[in-house]
């Protein structure tokens, strides 16, 4: 976790993603196979079939239904299957109300699915918040009555480390997200960008392998959003630190293309996967790369 710092001092960060220049050989050149056995070989740059491979994270036929006040059944998610490999940055886009946040909450273990399974490293997610995952929310989700450092260390309370260690870990991460000196400030004293830095610190302090982010930049002004995007990219690119996988929900298609290895497009409710698209642009990427606009157009037309 090196937010705001060079995460690639030895040249090992972005390098890991350079093999992203796929030589597609499957049916549709950009559609990701949903089979868990079909994974990317980032080293050879080709998509290969490795029968033993277990994806880091797997959604198997996730369906979610609610019953409304009048007893009517509402199907929100309809058989969502996704297979997510180590080192992937994956974004989920789709129409408003389609079930994207619901999907993240299910993955986080905050909500149960009606049917289906979430597997992490081949094991089924238990009915509780999973320690491999942490979540960053659009509305920051800070406790207004707690200071910055208390907000960050809150999530560590269930972990069996001493109070002193908790404080030390939290103060370190607060410095890394660029909030040194604000440890004892209350959320009301912070700008939106600073609040989201606390939100990110609170997630990163847990050392999650999977970082789930629900529209993390949408409440921020464009410049702050851009800075935080770059910082998240650095954190994720650093192979030596967590998180290994980032899964982000966004309405900003260009943002999704710029940041992601894959963009999953969901339909209107009940959400199903319309397309699972590889973003075949080498990293580091140029924001004004023509391919970014091409992918953005392609995805925008697919969102109903
Ligand atoms: N607890 C609940 N009870 C009943 N319906 C719910 C509940 N939670 C979510 N829903 C419904 O599920 C649908 C999907 O909601 P969700 O918040 O996941 O959508 P979303 O894709 O994240 O939308 P947005 O892009 O606007 O954030 C909505 O129609 C919502 O009303
Ligand atoms: Mg949402």
How do the helices and strands line up, and which of them pair or pack?
Blueprint: E1 38-41, E2 46-49, E3 57-67, E4 73-84, E5 89-93, H1 100-108, E6 115-120, E7 123-124, E8 133-136, H2 148-154, H3 163-176, H4 192-204, E9 210-214, H5 222-237, E10 245-249, H6 253-259, E11 262-266, E12 273-278, H7 290-302
Parallel strand pairs: 5-10, 5-11, 8-9, 9-10
Antiparallel strand pairs: 1-2, 3-4, 3-6, 6-7, 11-12
Helix pairs in contact: 2-3, 2-4, 3-4, 6-7
What does it look like?
The protein has seven helices and twelve strands. The strands form three sheets. A six-stranded mixed β-sheet has the order 8-9-10-5-11-12, sandwiched between helices. Helix content is 26%, strand content 23%. The chain has 304 residues and is α/β, with parallel strands linked by helices. It has helices at 100-108, 148-154, 163-176, 192-204, 222-237, 253-259, 290-302, and strands at 38-41, 46-49, 57-67, 73-84, 89-93, 115-120, 123-124, 133-136, 210-214, 245-249, 262-266, 273-278. It has a domain at 14-87 and 94-127 and 253-302: Rossmann fold (3-Layer(aba) Sandwich), CATH 3.40.50. The longest helix has 16 residues, at 222-237. α2 crosses α3. The structure holds adenosine-5'-triphosphate and magnesium ion. Residues 100-101, 214 line the site of magnesium ion.
């Amino acid at each position: 976790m090196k937010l705001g710092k060079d995460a690639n001092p030895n040249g090992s960060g972005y390098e890991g993603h350079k093999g992203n220049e796929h030589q597609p050989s499957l049916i549709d050149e950009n559609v990701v196979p949903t089979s868990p056995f079909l994974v990317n070989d980032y080293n050879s740059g080709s998509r290969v079939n490795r029968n033993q491979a277990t994806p880091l994270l797997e959604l198997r036929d996730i369906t979610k239904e609610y019953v409304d006040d009048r007893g009517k059944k509402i199907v929100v998610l309809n058989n969502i299957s996704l297979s997510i490999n180590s080192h992937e940055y994956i974004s989920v886009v789709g129409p408003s109300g389609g079930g994207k946040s619901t999907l993240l909450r299910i993955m986080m273990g905050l909500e149960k699915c009606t049917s289906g399974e979430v597997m992490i490293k081949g094991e089924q997610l238990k009915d509780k918040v999973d320690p491999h995952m942490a979540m960053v929310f659009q509305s920051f989700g800070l406790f207004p009555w707690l200071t910055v450092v208390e907000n960050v260390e809150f999530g560590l309370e269930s972990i069996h480390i001493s109070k002193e260690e908790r404080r030390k870990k939290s103060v370190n991460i607060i410095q890394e997200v660029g909030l040194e000196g604000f440890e004892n400030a209350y959320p009301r004293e912070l700008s939106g960008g600073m609040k989201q830095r606390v939100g990110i610190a609170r997630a990163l302090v847990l050392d999650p392998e999977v970082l789930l982010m629900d529209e993390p930049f949408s409440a921020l002004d464009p410049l702050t959003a851009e800075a935080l995007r770059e910082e998240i990219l650095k954190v994720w690119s650093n192979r030596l630190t967590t998180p290994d996988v980032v899964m982000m929900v966004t309405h900003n298609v260009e943002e999704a293309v710029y940041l992601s290895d894959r963009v999953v497009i969901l339909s209107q409710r009940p959400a199903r996967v319309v397309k699972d698209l590889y973003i075949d642009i080498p990293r580091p990427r140029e924001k004004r790369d023509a391919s970014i606009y091409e992918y953005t157009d392609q995805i925008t037309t697919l969102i109903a």
